[in-house]
């Protein structure tokens, strides 16, 4: 394993620990309207609150991608199927597609990322969010990972 | 490490334009499942398949046929281009689907593209993230290719009696290949701060696009170039440390100045190296690729060009 890869993996492991400090609600408390966060294998997250999902890339992803220099976002009211690419994030000469965790339409775009793409690095799961979207079919959330499963997924990728 | 299969698409003399090449690459990345190596040189705008005209007003009715500016997905024309000169010379500017910087492409550039699939590369530790991909391409693809090129340049190829006479690197036997892969001499190829260099001179631009099931890494090698074309580019604000304040002329190297006028030997060295990275390398003609992917899946080049992320820029604000 190369030094660079070892270094990237150590950053990724620390990012996994930071990622899992995101608040998660157990099903029995859903009625109290806490936000629930779910994760995709491609390292997007969606935090669901009141039928709207806030979508971005995880801390693990931003650590692996490197310095983010550009974020390509969709337009308001654009519609995406689950698994469809809705934009891309550029780092180290690479444009990496980002994918919609669920089917829905875009209700809000984080315009701040146009001038401050580095927010994705400093706050991937906070002020570095990409879009907010409606959720057409809540059952699609069931196929996403919860925090424990995502942690395991990241650890497998890091090893 | 060897992947199972690689498809080789030689686009030299194919007649497709630079714009069509970009569209084809994106089609293969997003709508195919195979590993690919593409190589070729292209006229900027002599289209073989594209029929629709999509010219900005400043470049109408006939844009500059000598070169095309290709920017990365996040490129800002106001920061990277000499816009008045671009407009006065009617040079088309495009944005490609990959990241990275700005290049001026003409028929002197040798353009390579590697498309790798996660199912083949992940088991070998190549992760779909930028640095992992670039390390693999430098260590396993271009590094060995330039080794072969350097040794072939400096020493005659000695063919053992028991081996077949060479006609390009690809037909060489194991013993001769070992000689070409050893005793590195000549200008040293390396990956330096995300650039491919010989010494401290950059020889081309590289960029990547990463999707769900794999990645694409393409490079434009400066076999030769026109000095006048570099005037379309500004000195970028963000540049690698090793560049310093050097102008394009002092920072770049023409590969022909080291390896000769013909780039055929370079393509041969790439093919030989690809044969060492895959158990099976299959050459495939362009017309079959067009039929299988662009026509059957995407409705033809004109239709696909409307949907793909490669775009001709009409405005620079």
UniProtKB/TrEMBL annotation, chain A:
Entry's transmembrane regions: none
Domain of life: Eukaryota
Cofactor, how bound (note): Binds 1 lipoyl cofactor covalently.
GO biological process: glycine decarboxylation via glycine cleavage system; protein lipoylation
GO cellular component, one term: glycine cleavage complex
Subcellular location field: Mitochondrion
Keyword Cytoplasm: no
A family per Pfam: GCV_H
Protein name: Glycine cleavage system H protein
Organism annotation: Cylindrotheca closterium
Upper lineage: Eukaryota, Sar, Stramenopiles, Ochrophyta, Bacillariophyta
From TrEMBL, chain B:
InterPro entries per record: aa-tRNA-synth_II/BPL/LPL, BPL_LPL_catalytic, Lipoate-ligase_2_inactive
Coiled-coil annotated residue ranges, if any: none
The BPL/LPL catalytic domain, residue ranges: 63-261
Highest taxon of the lineage: Eukaryota
PANTHER family listed in its UniProt record: BIOTIN/LIPOATE A/B PROTEIN LIGASE FAMILY, BPL_LPL CATALYTIC DOMAIN-CONTAINING PROTEIN
Protein name stated in the entry: BPL/LPL catalytic domain-containing protein
Species name: Cylindrotheca closterium
Organism classification: Eukaryota, Sar, Stramenopiles, Ochrophyta, Bacillariophyta
């Amino acid at each position: 394993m190369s030094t660079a890869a070892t270094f990237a993996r150590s950053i990724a492991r620390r990012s996994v620990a930071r990622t899992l400090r995101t608040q998660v609600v157990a099903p029995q408390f859903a009625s109290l309207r806490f936000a629930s966060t779910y994760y995709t294998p491609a390292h997007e997250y969606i935090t669901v609150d009141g039928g709207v999902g806030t979508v971005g890339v995880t801390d693990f992803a931003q650590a692996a991608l490197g310095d983010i220099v550009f974020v390509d976002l969709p337009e308001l009211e654009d519609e995406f199927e689950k698994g469809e690419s809705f934009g891309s994030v550029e780092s180290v000469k690479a444009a990496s597609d980002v994918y919609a965790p669920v089917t829905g339409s875009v209700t809000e775009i984080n315009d701040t990322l146009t001038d401050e793409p580095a927010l994705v690095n400093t706050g991937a799961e906070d002020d570095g969010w990409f879009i907010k979207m409606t959720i057409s079919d809540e059952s699609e959330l069931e196929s996403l990972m919860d925090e424990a499963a995502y942690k395991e997924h990241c650890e497998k990728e890091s090893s | 490490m060897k992947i199972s299969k690689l498809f080789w698409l030689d686009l030299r003399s194919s007649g497709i334009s630079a714009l069509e090449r970009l569209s084809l690459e994106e089609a293969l990345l997003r709508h195919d499942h195979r590993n690919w190596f593409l190589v070729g040189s292209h006229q900027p705008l002599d289209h073989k398949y594209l029929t629709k005209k999509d010219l900005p007003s400043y470049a109408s009715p006939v844009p500059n046929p000598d070169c095309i500016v290709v920017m990365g997905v996040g490129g800002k024309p106001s920061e990277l281009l000499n816009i008045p000169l671009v407009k006065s010379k009617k040079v088309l500017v495009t944005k490609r689907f990959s990241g990275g910087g700005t290049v001026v492409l003409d028929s002197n550039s040798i353009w390579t593209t590697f498309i790798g699939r996660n199912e083949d590369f992940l088991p070998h530790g190549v992760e779909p993230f930028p640095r992992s991909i670039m390390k693999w391409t430098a260590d396993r693809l271009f590094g060995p290719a330039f080794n072969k090129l350097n040794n072939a340049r400096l020493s005659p190829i000695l063919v053992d009696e028991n081996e077949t006479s060479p006609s390009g690197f690809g037909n060489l036997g194991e013993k001769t290949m070992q000689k070409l892969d050893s005793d590195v001499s000549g200008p040293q190829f390396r990956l330096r701060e995300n650039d491919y260099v010989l010494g401290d001179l950059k020889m081309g631009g590289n960029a990547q696009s990463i999707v769900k099931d794999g990645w694409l890494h393409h490079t434009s090698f400066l076999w030769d170039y026109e000095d006048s074309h570099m005037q379309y580019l500004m000195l970028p604000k963000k540049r690698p440390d090793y560049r310093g304040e050097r102008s394009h002329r002092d920072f770049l190297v023409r590969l022909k100045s080291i390896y000769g006028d013909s780039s055929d030997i370079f393509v041969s060295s790439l093919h030989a190296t690809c044969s060492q990275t895959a158990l099976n390398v299959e050459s495939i003609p362009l017309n079959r690729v067009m039929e299988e992917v662009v026509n059957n899946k995407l409705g033809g080049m004109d239709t696909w060009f409307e949907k793909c992320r490669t775009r001709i820029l009409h405005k620079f604000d």
